[in-house]
Structures are given as structure tokens and as C-alpha cells.
């Protein structure tokens, strides 16, 4: 029996690792599974754990108000070190590009445990965009034993960097496993603000923006474009999920608050956010995970970034890279809201990110 330590810290990490943890737990004859969370996103992480009924065995709770990247990195490494010393796992698994993921790979290396990288091989080619995620990916690749690539393009990136073919497993993305699981279930939504949005007859434009490279003036341009968009389309309602970071809020609130066609909401729990995506006509986002989720629900995505490590969606036509230019966002969004044919092309394109069986393929490879 193999001892597996699954490590995650943020809400996206938890969403994408939950199907893997559950699949490994379904095979007790093959795997002894332990879960360690760093708490890099405290409240948002706990929400997802509740949805999937995952109880961590270890909780580092590293997040402190105002903590910088160096502090998060060192606290995570110091916290994981005694856990690996105690568990002595055969494999450590983590997903994606967060500080938690890079540190988990480094801790596994220090303990000479094998590391499996879920969602491996994503690249933009610019080590500062997104920051620090792109370098987290590169460093994690150098430390990993097995690379679970979500798409062929990701696998090709790894091959081009010298990773042996035998060490790459093409799986699809686990976010689709999680998404399809939740989307297919009926859920009670206790938040009256979200209930009201879900019952609103207007077309919904769902907006999320939080990335570091968009802080400041780019974020302000996003806000101004959203305001102009709803004012030019009276039958629309913009729903903006405000990130908890005060830098984001200080920029967006003065532009968007108190507008009759704009709803500013706190970051929803995972289930309500899936339901909002199902309700949406159009999604504007700088989030990597949303670029994968929304197309699987048939929703066109405009990516509010200059680069993306998920070019498959752009190539397939489910997403379009528009950056943060005011005119570009307004023009592309208006096109989708007013041109039925343009909308249908994006909405009906098959998502390139998976079939909902990625976790099974990961467990099979580990077995």
C-alpha cells in the first residue's frame, strides 16, 4: 500500500485536488491517504473542504494578515517539514502553481519522497506574468517525479523542457471533475443576494478580477469597462465577485458601487459560484480556474489578461484574450451580447479541458 500525502492551501487548489483525494480514498486497498492544508486561503479553503466533505489530517494555518510571499513560503516549508518526517509518504501530491504547491514539492525533495504534480506543464513563457505563479510552475517541474498534464499542449511544454515521456501522464483537468460533480447536484443557496441574482430575468455578466499584474490602473480600466458595458446594454446585470484583497477593493468600489445594474458580492462559496456560472450569459475574468470551468458550462469567456497559461481555450474558441484595455473589453463583450452568431460559436465549442475522469487517471498512474 502506498502512503500518499495530498497538500493544498488555496481555494482553487482545494477544488482541483478534491476529486483526487476522493478517488484515492475510494481505493483503501491501494492507498493510505493523508491530507495537509496550509491555509493559504483560510475562509475560502474551508468552504470547499465542506462541500466535498474532506477533513484535513494536518492544518498549518499559515496565513497572517499582510503576510508577504517570503513569509508564506517559509511558514509553509517549516510547517510541512515535520509532517513529512512523521508520515514518510511514498508520494506527495499538489496541484497547480501556488506558493503551497512549490513548497510542497521542495519539502518532498528534501525528504526524498516522490512528488506528483497535478495540472503540470502550464506556461506563459514570462517568468513575471503571472507573478509568482509562472516561476512556481517551472520550479515545481524541476522537482517533480510524475507530471499530470491536463492537456496535450501542457504535455508538449514539458517534453520541450526535457521531461521524459514516461514521466508525463495526460489526464484532463481535475477542475472539470469537480465542476461536473457540483453542477449536476441540486443545492440550497442560503445567501439571499445570490438567490436574487439567480432569479433575475436579465442577462448576467459575471466578473472576477484579482491578479497582481492587474492591480492599479489595469483594474480601474476593467471596472470602467464593466460599468460602460451595462449602461450600453440595459437588459444586463453585472455581478462582480469582489476579491478580499483591499488593493482590489479600493480600486473597484469607487467605480462600481451603487449602480442599479451592478451587484457587488463577496467571494461566493464554490457551489454558489458554480450556479452563478451556470446562470451567466458571459464571463469576464483574470482567473485561471474560471477560464477552464465556464467553457465546460457553455459560457464564453473574455480573459482580462495580457497572457494566459491556458491557451487551449483560446485556440479552441471558448475563450478570448482581451487584456485590460477599456475599448477592447467593451468591444468584445458588446459583440458577444449583440451578435447571436458570434456568441453561438463560442458557447457551443467543446471545452478542451477534460471529460471529468482526470482523478481516475491520476489514481491509476499512482497505482
What does this structure look like?
There is one protein chain. Strand 1 (2-8), helix 1 and strand 2 (31-37) form a beta-alpha-beta unit. The model has no long low-confidence stretch (mean pLDDT 95). The protein is of the alpha/beta class and 367 residues long. Helix 1 (11-25) runs parallel beside helix 2 (42-51), helix 1 packs across helix 16 (358-366) and helix 3 (69-87) crosses helix 4 (99-110). The strands form 2 sheets. Strands 3-2-1-4-5-6-7 form a 7-stranded parallel sheet, sandwiched between helices. A 6-stranded parallel sheet has the order 10-9-8-11-12-13, with helices on both faces. It is built from 16 helices and 13 strands. The chain has 2 domains: 2-170, Rossmann fold, CATH 3.40.50; 192-347, Rossmann fold (3-Layer(aba) Sandwich), CATH 3.40.50. It is globular and about 60 Å long. Its EC number is 5.1.3.14.
- Please state roughly what percent of the residues sit in beta strands, choosing from under 5%, 5-15%, 15-25%, 25-35%, 35-45% or over 45%: 15-25%
The Rg value, from CA coordinates, equals 20 Å
Helical fraction equals: 40-55%
Number of helices: 16
CATH level 4 superfamily of the largest domain: Glycogen Phosphorylase B
Work out the count of structural domains.
2
Largest sheet: 7 strands, parallel
Q: What is the terminal separation in angstroms?
A: 9 Å
Amino acid at each position: 500500500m502506498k502512503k500518499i500525502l495530498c497538500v493544498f492551501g488555496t481555494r482553487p487548489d482545494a477544488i482541483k485536488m478534491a476529486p483526487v483525494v476522493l478517488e484515492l480514498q475510494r481505493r483503501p486497498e491501494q492507498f493510505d491517504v493523508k491530507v495537509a492544508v496550509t491555509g493559504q486561503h483560510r475562509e475560502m479553503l474551508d468552504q470547499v473542504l465542506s462541500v466535498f466533505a474532506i477533513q484535513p489530517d494536518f492544518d498549518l494555518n499559515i496565513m497572517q494578515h499582510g503576510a508577504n510571499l517570503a513569509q508564506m513560503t517559509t511558514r509553509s516549508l517549516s510547517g510541512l517539514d515535520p509532517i513529512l518526517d512523521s508520515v514518510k509518504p511514498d508520494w506527495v501530491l499538489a496541484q497547480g502553481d501556488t506558493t503551497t504547491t512549490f513548497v510542497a514539492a521542495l519539502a518532498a525533495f528534501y525528504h526524498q519522497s516522490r512528488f506528483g504534480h497535478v495540472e503540470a506543464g502550464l506556461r506563459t513563457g514570462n517568468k513575471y506574468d503571472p507573478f509568482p505563479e509562472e516561476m512556481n510552475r517551472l520550479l515545481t517541474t524541476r522537482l517533480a517525479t510524475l507530471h499530470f498534464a491536463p492537456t496535450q499542449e501542457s504535455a508538449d511544454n514539458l517534453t520541450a523542457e526535457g521531461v521524459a515521456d514516461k514521466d508525463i501522464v495526460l489526464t484532463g483537468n481535475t477542475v472539470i471533475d469537480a465542476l461536473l460533480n457540483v453542477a449536476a447536484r441540486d443545492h440550497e443557496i442560503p445567501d439571499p443576494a445570490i438567490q436574487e441574482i439567480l432569479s433575475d430575468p436579465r442577462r448576467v455578466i459575471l466578473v472576477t478580477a484579482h491578479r497582481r499584474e492587474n492591480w492599479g490602473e489595469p483594474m480601474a480600466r476593467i471596472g470602467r469597462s464593466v460599468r460602460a458595458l451595462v449602461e450600453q446594454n440595459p437588459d444586463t446585470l453585472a455581478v462582480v465577485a469582489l476579491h478580499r484583497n483591499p488593493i482590489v477593493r479600493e480600486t473597484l468600489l469607487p467605480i462600481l458601487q451603487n449602480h442599479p445594474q451592478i451587484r457587488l458580492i463577496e467571494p461566493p462559496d464554490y457551489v454558489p459560484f458554480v450556479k452563478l456560472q451556470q446562470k451567466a450569459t458571459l464571463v469576464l475574468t483574470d482567473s485561471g480556474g474560471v477560464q477552464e470551468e465556464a467553457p465546460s458550462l457553455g459560457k464564453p469567456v473574455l480573459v482580462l489578461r495580457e497572457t494566459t497559461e491556458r491557451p487551449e481555450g483560446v485556440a479552441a474558441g471558448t475563450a478570448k484574450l482581451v487584456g485590460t484595455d477599456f475599448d477592447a473589453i467593451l468591444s468584445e463583450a458588446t459583440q458577444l451580447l449583440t451578435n447571436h452568431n458570434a456568441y453561438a460559436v463560442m458557447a457551443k465549442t467543446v471545452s478542451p479541458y477534460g471529460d471529468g475522469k482526470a482523478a481516475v487517471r491520476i489514481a491509476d498512474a499512482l497505482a
